[in-house]
Specification:
CATH superfamily: P-loop containing nucleotide triphosphate hydrolases
Number of strands: 12
Oligomer: single chain
Strand order of the largest sheet: 6-9-10-3-11-12
Shape: globular
Number of domains: 1
Order of helices and strands: EEEHEEHEEHHEHEHEHEEHH
CATH architecture: 3-Layer(aba) Sandwich
Radius of gyration: 19 Å
Number of helices: 9
Distance between the termini: 53 Å
CATH class: Alpha Beta
CATH topology: Rossmann fold
Mean pLDDT: 90
Strand content: 25-35%
Largest sheet: 6 strands, mixed
Helix content: 25-40%
Length: about 280
């Protein structure tokens, strides 16, 4: 499905756009993102790769509005709506979804209850014309290899890392967001599980025009997601973008050349003075 044909749960026929421009942000007084620019539209898959400490997870947290992070410059919009003043639940209602790197346990809150409240909060009938939420949950669980007996368990309680990633993907499929941010969906999950969840994400791109920003260290996730664009994030900024072949290059040669160029750029800029 092309972007022009894409649709989402927020409105059939709409083309959605997450636009990040000049984003500078940090935590505990340390600026981590030093000017990120990226645009993700319906039906597109973008991958973000980079060395440890480059700001990948910070980018995910800032986009979703996690407390504790400070934005000091730039803009983030979804369909032209400024996201930065909004709470995470408000960003979710607008169609943004985050699958975190380490999903936390939520004792006392079942998956069905969480999905019901999330859908109602977005003005969607949980039991729509496609079937009851329970029936859809069972169907989605089977698609991602999530044991149906776990659907009645409190969110992520006593689940393995792989089960949590399957659960997050199941939740994404039920909510049908406009844009999904996947923070290392491939961590803590085995090869079969990775194939299941990545295929479901890819199917979402085709089924309702899902736009994807996938953060990863490894090309194995991208071999299933088939990204349209691969971005290299180094020292808090995207320093290169290209097609899937860029991920192959990174796997062969690593980030050393990109880190050197970024360091020289920063040091050169720091040394300049006005004449």
């Amino acid at each position: 499905m092309s972007a022009a044909q894409a649709r989402s749960g927020n409105g059939p026929g709409r083309v959605h756009e997450l636009a990040v421009a000049g984003l500078r942000a940090g935590v505990a007084g340390l600026e981590v993102l030093t000017g990120v620019d990226v645009v993700v539209r319906s039906g597109e898959v973008h991958a973000v790769m980079g060395p440890n400490g480059s700001g990948k997870s910070t980018l995910a947290h800032v986009l979703m509005g996690k407390p504790g992070y400070q934005v000091v410059g730039g803009t983030v919009t979804l369909d032209g709506r400024d996201l930065l003043p909004l709470a995470p639940f408000e960003r979710s209602r607008l169609g943004l979804f985050l699958a975190p790197q380490d999903p936390i346990e939520v004792p006392g809150v079942g998956l069905h209850q969480a999905m019901t409240e999330a859908l109602v909060g977005r003005g969607v009938n949980p039991d729509d014309t496609t079937g009851s939420l329970t029936a859809r949950s069972v169907a989605e669980a089977r698609r991602v290899g999530f044991e149906t007996r776990l659907l009645d368990r409190p969110l992520n309680v006593d689940l393995s890392g792989g089960e949590r990633k399957r659960s997050e993907t199941l939740q994404m499929a039920l909510l049908r967001p406009s844009i999904a941010i996947l923070d290392e969906l491939d961590s803590g999950i085995d090869i079969d599980g990775l194939r299941d969840v990545a295929r479901r994400v890819r199917d979402g791109v085709a089924e309702w025009g899902l736009g994807v920003l996938a953060i990863t260290h490894y090309r194995r996730l991208l071999s299933v997601l088939h990204p349209d664009v691969v971005h290299v994030l180094v020292r808090g900024r995207i320093v290169a973008s290209g097609g899937p072949e860029l991920a192959e290059e990174l796997e062969r040669s690593g980030y050393a050349a990109f880190e050197k160029a970024a360091r020289e750029r920063d040091e050169g800029g720091a040394g300049k003075t006005d004449s």
